[in-house]
Structures are given as C-alpha cells and as structure tokens.
Amino acid sequence: MTLPEGLVAAAADARPIHPLRPAGLAAFLDTLPAPQAAFLRASGFAAKFGETGLLPAADGLAGAVLGLGESEELWAWGAAPLSLPPDTAWQLADPAAAAPATLGWALGAYRFTRYAARKRMPARLVLPEGAKEALILADSVIAARDLINTPAADLGPDELVGAVEALAACHNAQFSVIGSDALAAGFPALFAVGAGSPRAPKLAILEWDSGIEGAPLVALCGKGVCFDTGGLDLKPSAGMLRMKKDMGGAAIMVGLAAAIMRARLPIKLILLVGAVENSISGCAMRPMDVLRTRKGLTVEIGNTDAEGRLVLADLLAYAAERNPAVIIDAATLTGAARVALGPDLPALFCNDPVLGTFIRDAALSSQDGVWQLPLHDGYDSWLENPTADLSNVGSKPLAGAVTAALFLRRFVPPGQPWAHLDVYGWNDAPRPGRPEGGEAQTLRAVYAALAKQFGCGLNL
C-alpha cells in the first residue's frame, strides 16, 4: 500500500512524540528525567496550538512534544510535519491519538509537486494502529486537492472524466460517459455551458453497490467547470485568476466517493460529474438565450457567468429520477457565500432537517466546518422571468447564495432529501494542515454524516 507523503509503515529510528494540552503540561514534566524537564521549561514550551519542542538525549534526540492548545487537535497535528526536523521519523507515544494524528499529519505534509520538487522534506510519522479510516480520508482529501491544484491546461473535461473512470476501475464500479449528441439531447443546460469550448463537455457517471441488501442509494453531484472565463459576460483578470478551481465541487465529490467505496459504507452510490469548460467562441451561450433543461423547465440566461447552477440543474434532475435516499451536491458556486461566510465556512443549504442536522453535527466533530443558510421562500420570486420559466440569476443584487440554492431547488422533487454545499475550495494562505491551494472542504463532514446516518462501514 502506498502511503501519503509524511507517513511510513515503519522506521527503525523513530522517536516518540507526546501530544500535550496546557493543562497536562506540568504533570508530564514531572514524568521526565530532570535534564529533559529543565530543557523543556527553559525553551518556553507551553503546549500551545501547533507548538513543538524537542527532548534531548546524551546521543542526540530522545523525543518530541506537540502542543495541542485548547482545541482543534487535528490541525495541531498538521503543524508537526514541517515544524519538526526535516526527514526525521516519529511514532505516537499516545495510541489514543491515532486517528487525528494520522489525518492531520498527512494533510500537513501534503504539497502539490507535479511541476516542482519539494523544497523541504517533512518529518515522517509511523502509521499507528487504529487509523484505517483516517488514512482513507487523508488519501481522499489529497486526491481532491491534487485535482483542484492541477492547471486547466492539464485538467480539462476529458481529464476530469478520466479521473472518475480511474476511480471506478479501482473499486470495480460501473462507469459510463455521456457526450456529443446524447449530452445535448439529455442534458441540454450542461451541454450549453460547455458549448463554447473546443474541449467538449461530458458527463461522467460512476455507480457502485456495497452489496448490502436493501442499502439506500446516495447520489453525489459535482460541478466540474474545469475553467470558468465567465463566458461572454467575461470575468475581469483578477476574478479569473483562480478559476482552475471551479471544478472544486466535482473534485470533492470524487474524493468523497473514493472514501465511501474504500470504507465500504453500506450504501449504493451514484456519482455524477458534469465536466465542462465555460469559454468564449461563436458557439458560446449568450445573455438572454433561453435554454431547456433535462427537467423540461426553461431558463433565460441573465448572466453567462452563473453557469455552475445550469450544470447542476441537469445533474440534480437526473439524480432525482433514480429516487435516491439523499442527493448531495457540491460546487464553487457563488461569491456571495464567501461574502457572507468567508473562505473557511462553506454554505450548507438543505431541505431536510434530519440530513441537515447530520451534516452540521459531523462538520463540528470532524473540524470540517459548514454553516447552514436558509432556503428562504420569500426570495424565490426573484427568479421569475417573463420569457422563460425562470432566470439563472436573481432580479436583485442581494442574497446571491440563497437565490442560487433556490434555483437548484427547482430541480429537486418535493420531499426528496437534498443538501447543497457552496464551497470556496481553496486555502488563500498556508496554515497547519492546510497548505495554500486547493482544499477539499466538506468532504470529511459529509463522509461522517453519511457514515452516521446509514451505518459505520469499514468492512474492509
């Protein structure tokens, strides 16, 4: 088994690392040999979040300590790989920390190295026992980060579809792809978004069955806009700079599907990835064009840069035709969600109280935050349009994340449990466990919510 960078199966020279909170520091110091305790006190170690300290020995290092602070144990472990001496090996002194240490260490050691070598090798952690699920989640997050970080020149619709196909092959899942005339006929809104690019739009479909009789069907839908120019409503250069990440919702759903299948959650799964590029040409959709959707509703284009909801509209309609127990979609959909909640809190919209509670609780327990915003019926009329059934943008320059979610709700049947995640998908600056670049926001939270709602899994 290939382990994420920073984790090793064994190391003969591994030294112990002790996780500590401030309240337990004094008691821990009392257990140390007097010279080590004096050294740690003299160094000023206070067990603050992400703080590391070294324990000396006559022949070098005897071990290390890691400060957990008062909370966020996962991200404290994320600081260790780059704050401990490079390329040293460590093993847990506290087996109870196996899960957060494994996940945090792997995410903290991650760097995107496709185009340049690492400047500094991380410290390595010997993989502890009892960390299977943490390792699965680390691999899944890293895979999603790699997809988001890959430039659009090397990750277009074909390559994104290829990632879904490779995932299906790894888990003996069924895979199919829809393109060309079949896509134009069956998924016309999705097709229209990608029609302006020489790289043809495609829909990737992965289906997997855990083999558990009566298992519920979970549908995952991901916005896979591999690059978003804004279309004819062209983005300014600053707004276009990070648009390689506009397929972040698809990357998150691909990573989530990988975690579900590898942990063998007792469900049936269908993953839908709408892989397109929103570009400019004589074939691109225009403002005030009227598009038909898979559901039959017509949509007037108020802005060609509000394209992600058109992709998801057809995906949601198709998912609903399968009568799943839940539908979950993820998309880098609106700047309005970032204005409301900032980059670290994806917006959750949910029409089902039970599903919403599971996701909110899981987000807290997994330190993978979300914040629920309302599907406020009072704003639904803002989508009304005199020419078509609805517009793809609201009539007022307010509550853009809410009106986008209300647009999507039009394509989900009443009574169908559904959650929509409006994510940023990016770390603007490096922090412990979260290097600058693509981020698989909500992946771990939704995995934990599904595991709790439908069964624990890990029938490996």
Automatic annotation (TrEMBL):
Belongs to the peptidase M17 family. CDD domains: Peptidase_M17. Residues 303-310 form the Cytosol aminopeptidase domain. This is Leucyl aminopeptidase family protein. InterPro entries: Leucine_aapep/pepB, Macro_dom-like, Peptidase_M17_C, Peptidase_M17_N_1. Keywords: Aminopeptidase, Hydrolase, Manganese, Protease. It comes from the Bacteria. GO terms for biological process: proteolysis. GO terms for molecular function: manganese ion binding; metalloaminopeptidase activity. GO terms for cellular component: cytoplasm. Pfam families: Peptidase_M17, Peptidase_M17_N_1.
